[in-house]
Amino acid sequence: MRVEKTIDFAYKGIVIASRMLDGLSSNGKLRKENLSAFCSGLILFSLATTVLFAPFPIFFSQELALPTNSVFAIYALNSGVGVVGYFLAGSRTSQATEKSHITKTEIFRSLLAFLLVAATGVPQYNAVLAAVILISMGFAYAFFLVFTLSLSMELIPAGKAGLFTGLVGIGSAGGNFIGPFLAHTSGFISVFLTAGTIFFLAYIVFKIST
């Protein structure tokens, strides 16, 4: 993939230079992906995900008063649609689409996190709305993971494949502390707003990296 990417970059440069020498306007972009921005976006996405999901079982059981078996069923559905998402994302992976799908997933999860605020203000529907949002996030996460793994093979230098797992681990470690802390000290609305904001920041960073 790295060889193909280098050839593609060189080809675009030759095409743009040829058009300029011929007096034609250049309508192409010659830009290498920013590895630092990609890594930062990966950490932010992992951080936002864990900030949101770490205290989520408590939100269901205490704030929404759902029984344990219902919480288990919701998480089982979340995992189930995630598996479906992996298969669908795998069949659609291509260099032309993976970058746009990553940013779409980021903004989608940001909107879902902000929508969770509504789940705290509509008592008669909040449990159903929160469950649907959680399940939708599982589906979106599958697409994000498949496409970022594919893109990381192009961006991360050979011999440093473990960097991907390390970056995800850094974000998860921070989120496991921040999420429960915010839930305990400021309430779950602050958790949802924080996660939504971090997801949006990750969206901006990934736009820069690609």
Tell me about this structure.
With 210 residues, the chain is mainly α. It folds into two domains: 32 residues, no CATH class; 176 residues, Up-down Bundle (Growth Hormone, Chain: A), CATH 1.20.1250. Helix content is 82%, strand content 0%. It has eight helices and no strands. α4 runs parallel beside α6 and α5 packs antiparallel against α6. The radius of gyration is 20 Å and the shape is globular. The chain starts with a helix and ends with a helix.
CATH architecture of the largest domain: Up-down Bundle
Low-confidence stretches: 1-32
**Whole-number count of domains:** 2
CATH topology assignment of the largest domain: Growth Hormone, Chain: A
Secondary structure category = mainly alpha
Number of strands: 0
Which percent range fits the helix content?
over 70%
Q: How many DSSP H or I helices? A: 8
- Strand proportion, as a percent range, falls in under 5%
User: Can you tell me the overall shape?
Assistant: globular
Task: State the name of the first-level CATH class of the largest domain.
Answer: Mainly Alpha
Radius of gyration: 20 Å
CA(first)-CA(last) distance: 16 Å
Determine the mean pLDDT.
76
Largest sheet: none
- Quick one: CATH superfamily of the largest domain? MFS general substrate transporter like domains
**Series of secondary-structure elements, N-terminal to C-terminal:** HHHHHHHH
